Amino acid sequence: MARPRAHDDALRTRLLDRAGELLSAQGPEGLGLRRLAADVGTSTTAVYSLFGGKPGLVRELYAEGFQRLGDRMAQVPRTDDPVADMCALGLAYRESALANPHFYSIMFGRAVPDFVPDEESVQTALRSIRPLEDAVARGIEQGLLADTDPGEITFAAWALVHGLVSLELNSPLARDDTSARYERALVNGIAGWRR
Length: 195
Fold this sequence. Notes:
- It comes from Saccharopolyspora kobensis.
- Residues 32-51 bind DNA.
- The chain is mainly alpha-helical.
- It has one domain: Tetracycline Repressor, domain 2, CATH 1.10.357.10.
- Helices cover 69% and strands 0% of the residues.
- It has helices at 9-26, 33-40, 44-51, 54-74, 82-99, 104-108, 119-127, 130-141, 150-170, 178-191.
- α9 (150-170) runs antiparallel to α10 (178-191).
């Protein structure tokens, strides 16, 4: 009988989730490897074994946040209506952010001021919005969206959902009807790009 791996994916996920929580709540000074290991019930050896140290942990936090976002976006069914798909992808973006708010500061902020994502991490981040790029391209091809650079529409749609989610996660001004307002903003934002 094979021995179970001591440092498996479940431990990796627990460490990343807790590291994201610590970073989000306390900033980089709160992300100590000893505290992280103790909070998760493991050793600092496990942290070093899985991530190689704090810089590797921060890199994995960034990549994991975008991987989770990409996974959520990829689950949105592709239909014959790319404009409806854009709305569905915007809702999936919000669902991902609300499920993983502790990754947001590393993904889109300067939670760790000296962190610069490497090329592999940047590619993971860019892959997360490919379903949106695809929906925009299909919308242009079908004559539903303005005949312009698809990157311009993709960026505007991404900025819209990101701004809405950032307000919801970070602003005390967000209200209980945020969900309905979010959907209306998506529909109206996309309408501005229709032919």
